[in-house]
Amino acid sequence: MKNGKILLAVVAAGMAASAAAAVRGAVTTANGRQEGMVAWSQASRKYTVTQTIAGGGTRSMEVKEAEAVKVEIEKPAQLDAAIKGRNKTALAGIVKTYSHLQWDLPAAAVLADIHLSGKATAEALKVCKDVIAKSPDAAWKGDLAPVYWRALLENNDRAELDRQLAKALKSGDRFSSASALIVRGDMVMRQGATRENARKALLDGYLRVILLYTEDDVVSRLGGVQYEKAARCFELMGNASRAAELRAKAR
Questions:
Q1: What is the pLDDT of residue 118?
Q2: What is the pTM of this model?
Q3: What number of helices (H) and strands (E) belong to the chain?
């Protein structure tokens, strides 16, 4: 095709095998939607869509990342069970197989969260940074970003944390922006559980989330953490009734 946007090649059966994992899905460009087995090359930053053709051969189409309008990958059959069971081995396998193919992000988010729950901050950061190296936007928006920020907070990497929070607040989706405000509140509270810090964390973070981010999907994804953290601040400020009211909303 013109300008080298998509390279078509017909190859014999068996030649479609690649060092990169291929999974079923589709890549859409300005020229249309191509379904087949999709693989990602980090070296060339291209997707390859391989289709079976009559006679047993295959046809492969290379699509530059910048030319991919949409990438749709079939959900891994084991993903939900791996997330529910917090299965590190299964999640790590999904992250590897689906590298830059949509489902690595939610799997990596849960895997990093498991590491953080076990106080394994270095492992959590590695999981996040390996994915972010391929998908830089994941550092400031989407499912992985809030987990990455928590890992940075635990690692006392204030410069990187401030940089990514600023991006999320300026250009992130609603969930990411709300999560960024919560982390800003957390940063204040790490300086000490004082009345003044509680007031500042409420005004700069938790209370702003409660008042400004009321969409059902955002509230659901936050899981009530904004109410619980705000309740703790109100307790420190001596307002037990307001704390109880907020905790009721968190349930």
A1: 96
A2: 0.84
A3: 12, 6
Give me Rg for the CA atoms of the chain.
22
- Calculate the CA 162 to chain-centre distance: 18
d(CA 87, CA 104): 14
In angstroms, the CA 185 to CA 163 distance is: 16
Query: What is the pLDDT at residue 13?
Result: 29
Q: Per-10-residue mean pLDDT for the chain, 251 residues long? A: 38 38 95 95 95 87 95 96 97 96 97 97 98 95 95 95 96 94 96 96 96 94 94 96 93 77
Please provide the DSSP assignment of 199-240 as one string: HHHIIIIIHHHHHH---HHHHHHHTTHHHHHHHHHHHHTT-H
By the 8 A CB rule, do 132 and 138 touch?
Answer: yes
192 burial level (CB within 10 Å; 0-12, 13-18, 19+): exposed
Residue with token string 């990438």: 71
pLDDT of residue 137: 95
Q: Any residues with CB less than 8 A from the CB of 35 and at least 6 apart, and which?
A: 25, 26, 49, 51
**SS3 label, residue 41:** strand
How far apart, in Å, are the Cα atoms of 100 and each of 26, 28, 71, 164? 13, 15, 10, 20
Structure tokens at 213: 């981010």
- Cα separation, 236 vs 95, in Å, equals 41
C-beta atoms surrounding 87 within 10 Å: 17
